[in-house]
């Protein structure tokens, strides 16, 4: 018998499970709104022009890069999210390591927290609080590092917007020094972000309760089209002088999904801790995968460090985010013109790749079976998966499902 005969099958990933149903569907006019990757108006994956351009440059060697990654990439990534003139950067209080995209940044950060975050003398380790709902992988990433995960209220399904009151109450009522995961912008899966006012209140509670913030920034520039605007919350927290962690992904905003380009930054209170934090991060990386991949980070570094390429990238960010916003507007207008029961204003108010439509499981299944439209069963639809041609079909389906 095999050593593994007792191993049960792992439950399928809910999102990838939907994608596999989609692939098996023989219908020609099917529509996949479950994927978390950008598509152009013809439904095709997109390679950014600026990325193609950098790829034409003479190839480098394939030597190992340092454990912490390419220094010019790390520096530029930290400046991108915190701001080039951030006090913490000028005062050399930031440690940044390259990571295997956003997931890898979260995972290495989680490992570090498990090993070194002991804010009080008690034996009970602080829990990690993630929003309810959150990106499906958050819980697993933190749990696999040995941390306990709990949730704070985030979304009000009656308004399809952030439950500001519940959120603040929960952050106030949980133990001091908890680890709080915050989506920097374009919350996944809801597309609903705190207002500036609410961000200020969150910061106040964080300071009062001495919570440790771990920002997850997976959509900078991709949400609003403006890199600065999408970094608002992270920069406001940085300016307050608190310590925090920031995970960055370049999957969506540079379209470098499979290249696994990301960064993990520790914003520290004091530059004296920087070299020890850096050395422990390198130790964690060494035992997990030795050193990160070179290719994607080289591309990102070229773009971030060259003013001309940077300008071209910003233009493409506007194009991608603009197309998504146009899809939101068209879908909203199609539903209003059909007089579809319900208030659909959240579709244009929400931001980023996804819309939390408010459709329930039965309605989502109805759309899949009758219209061959595939979205996750929580009612999340990728706005990037829509096109000018398919938006009316989606509106027809929604209308039929809710009346
Ligand atoms: N965090 C959030 C909120 C996300 O939505 C995603 C991707 O969908 C990620 C992190 C990480 O993605 P990646 O590891 O591809 O950068």
Concise description?
The protein has 403 residues and is an alpha/beta fold. The chain has 15 helices and 13 strands. Strand 5 and strand 6 (161-162) form a beta hairpin.
Describe this structure in words.
The strands form four sheets. This protein has a seven-stranded mixed sheet with strand order 2-10-9-8-7-3-4. It has a two-stranded parallel ribbon with strand order 1-12. A two-stranded antiparallel ribbon has the order 5-6. Strand 8 (about 210-215), helix 9 (about 230-240) and strand 9 (about 245-250) form a beta-alpha-beta unit. About 45% of the residues lie in helices and about 15% in strands. The chain is built from 15 helices and 13 strands. Helix 3 crosses helix 11 and helix 11 (about 295-305) packs across helix 12 (about 305-335). By secondary structure, it is α/β, with parallel strands linked by helices. The radius of gyration is 21 Å and the shape is globular. It has helices at about 15-25, 50-55, 70-80, 85-90, 100-115, 135-145, 165-175, 195-210, 230-240, 275-290, 295-305, 305-335, 345-350, 360-370, 390-400, and strands at about 30, 95-100, 130, 150-155, 155, 160, 180-185, 210-215, 245-250, 260-265, 355, 375, 380. The structure holds pyridoxal-5'-phosphate. Pyridoxal-5'-phosphate binds near residues 36, 218, 249 and 251. Pyridoxal-5'-phosphate (PLP) binds near residues 103 and 218.
């Amino acid at each position: 018998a095999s050593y593994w005969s007792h191993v049960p099958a792992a439950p399928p990933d809910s999102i990838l499970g939907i994608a596999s149903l989609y692939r098996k569907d023989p219908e020609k006019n099917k529509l996949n709104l479950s994927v978390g990757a950008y598509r152009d108006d013809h439904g095709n994956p997109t390679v950014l022009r600026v990325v193609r351009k950098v790829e034409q440059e003479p190839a480098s060697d394939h030597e190992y890069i340092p454990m912490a990654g390419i220094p010019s990439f790390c520096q530029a990534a930290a400046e991108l999210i915190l701001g080039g003139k951030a006090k913490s950067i000028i005062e050399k209080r930031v440690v940044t390591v390259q990571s295997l995209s956003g997931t890898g940044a979260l995972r290495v950060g989680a490992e570090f927290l498990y090993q070194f975050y002991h804010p009080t003398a008690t034996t009970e380790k602080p829990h990690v609080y993630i929003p309810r709902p959150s990106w499906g992988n958050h819980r697993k990433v933190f749990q696999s590092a040995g941390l306990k995960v709990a949730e704070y209220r985030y979304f009000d399904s009656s308004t399809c917007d952030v439950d500001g009151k519940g959120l603040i109450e929960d952050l106030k009522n949980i133990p001091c020094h908890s680890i709080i995961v915050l989506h920097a912008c374009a919350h996944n899966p809801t597309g609903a972000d705190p207002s500036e006012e609410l961000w200020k209140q969150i910061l106040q509670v964080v300071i009062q309760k001495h919570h440790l913030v771990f920002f997850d920034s997976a959509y900078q520039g991709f949400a609003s089209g403006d890199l600065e605007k999408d970094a608002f919350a992270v920069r406001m927290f940085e300016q307050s002088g608190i310590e925090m962690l920031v995970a960055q992904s370049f999957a969506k905003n540079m379209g470098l999904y499979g290249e696994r380009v990301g960064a993990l930054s520790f914003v520290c209170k004091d530059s004296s801790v920087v070299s020890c934090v850096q050395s422990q991060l390198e130790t964690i990386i060494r035992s997990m995968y030795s050193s990160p991949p070179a290719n994607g980070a080289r591309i990102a570094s070229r773009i971030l460090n060259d003013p001309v390429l940077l300008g071209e990238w910003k233009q493409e960010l506007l194009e991608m985010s603009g197309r998504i916003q146009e899809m939101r507007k068209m879908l909203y207008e199609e539903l209003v013109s059909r007089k579809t029961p319900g208030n659909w204003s959240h579709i244009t108010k929400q931001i980023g790749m996804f819309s939390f439509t408010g459709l329930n499981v039965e309605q989502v299944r109805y759309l899949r079976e009758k219209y061959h439209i595939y979205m996750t069963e929580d009612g999340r639809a990728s706005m990037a998966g829509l096109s000018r041609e398919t938006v009316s079909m989606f509106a027809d389906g929604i209308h039929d499902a809710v009346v």
